[in-house]
Amino acid sequence: MLRPRVAIGTIPAYHPPLAGRDGIRLDFNENTIGCSPRVLERLRQIGIEDLSRYPEKQLAEDRMAKFLGVASSEVLLTNGVDEGIHLLCQTYLEPGDQALIVVPTYSMYRIYMMAAGASVISVPAGRDFAFPMADVRERITARTRLIAIANPNNPTGTVVPIDELLELAAYAPDAAILIDEAYFEFCGQTILPRRHEHSNIFVARTFSKAYGLAGLRMGALMGDADQVLSVRRVCSPYNVNCAALACLPVALDDHAYVQRYVSEILASRTRLQDALQTAGIPFWPSQANFVLMRVGATPDDSKHFTERMRTRGILVRDRSANYGCEGCVRITLGPKEHTDRLLNALHETFEELDIAQGTRS
After folding, report:
1. 93/114 same-domain check
2. Do 138 and 234 have their domain in common?
3. Do 42 and 71 fall into the same domain?
4. Of 212, 234, 253, which one is at a domain's C-terminal end?
5. Is 146 in contact with 178 (CB distance < 8 Å)?
6. Does 233 lie in the same domain as 182?
7. I want to staple 323 with a disulfide (CB 3.0 to 4.6 A). Which of 3, 103, 218, 276 is the partner?
8. Do 22 and 91 lie in a common domain?
9. Residues 26, 114 share a domain
10. Rounded to whole angstroms, how far apart are CA atoms 118 and 121?
């Protein structure tokens, strides 16, 4: 009887709640108003010949390299950041190796690491989800081959200082260090200019968040040219579709659109955090386009809260399944009109569930 590898049977299932997402979608950290109108116009120009040919990504990679201020040989475009994570696992992990994450964090790190046959070492975050550098260093061994860090982190919105990341790369020179900067635009901190200090550093960026292109699945992986060449060897030459490649330069060129959107999100983040503080709701100050808050002590509390928000047309994400997040809900930020509706719904839901008062802003 045909059987999958043993490692496959041990991988936890990931079930994104995509079905029935009616309402304002503040549950997936997506851009809630969509991409630049210029991107839509470029999509309309894609013709039959574009669709009938295999996509060529060299020009788009050159454009991305120029945008990021790196060499073309240091960039690999990927089918979303997820593929970049997968490729790193396939390139650097073998059965018996160890990979390290700090929890809570993005679930797909663990899944791709386990799929490669590696043992995943989960290091609990510190107080208020601070990065536990001493504990991480303590868990690094000669078998550690990959360390993945979301910066800002998902679902907490916390950030690791650049100097600490560089310290980690120096301490584990035989491990690939992935710095996943999916939420970079909402934070502004990046390790990219200092990546050359250590050849084991990789930086990932996405266009699913600030750029509103989640449906096109476009990501980028940057690193030392020789290391990127190794990763490219396990990557399909046609991994990014023609629509994404056509739209990327247009999205990069529309700086004003992205800046306006990010400015609105930052204003909404301040409004939400101020409202939660006024209401006495525990939350963690965020450097991303979302805020994690605690609405109770148990998974049932966050489940009930999420359900009541849904009845008011607002979708938020129950994060109780994550380490240290029992009773927690994550809320994605949208522009002003979405935040107006969010704060009204929060006020009503807090009142209905007898959690707190005074969330209007």
Report:
1. yes
2. yes
3. yes
4. 253
5. yes
6. yes
7. 103
8. no
9. no
10. 9
What is the token pair recorded at 47? 């013709």
The verdict on 148 and 213 lying in the same domain is yes
Sign of the four-CA dihedral 33, 273, 105, 288: positive
How would you write the pLDDT of the chain (361 residues) with one tens digit per residue?
998 888 888 888 877 766 667 889 999 999 999 999 999 999 999 999 999 999 999 999 999 999 999 999 999 999 999 999 999 999 999 999 999 999 999 999 999 999 999 999 999 999 999 999 999 999 999 999 999 999 999 999 999 999 999 999 999 999 999 999 999 999 989 999 999 999 999 999 999 999 999 999 999 999 999 999 999 999 999 999 999 999 999 999 999 999 999 999 999 999 999 999 999 999 999 999 999 999 999 999 999 999 999 999 999 999 999 999 999 999 999 999 999 999 999 999 999 998 865 443 3
Rg (CA), the chain: 21
Distance CA 313, CA 96 (A): 47
The answer to whether the CB of 83 falls within 8 A of the CB of 204 is no
Given 198, 230, 253, which residue is the final one in a domain? 253
Neighbour count for residue 297 (Cβ, 10 Å): 10
Give me the helix-helix angle, 80-92 and 107-115, nearest 10°: 40
Measured CA to CA, the distance from residue 113 to residue 99 in angstroms comes to 7
d(CA 97, CA 333): 38
Place of tokens 């990763």: 231
The enclosing H or E element of 90 equals: helix 80-92
User: Taking a C-beta distance cutoff of 8 angstroms, is the pair 299, 327 a contact?
Assistant: yes
CATH number at residue 342: 3.90.1150.10
Q: In which domain, by residue range, is 155 found?
A: 37-253
Please report whether residue 81 resides in a domain. Answer: yes
Tell me: do 111 and 210 sit in the same domain. Answer: yes
pLDDT of residue 360: 37
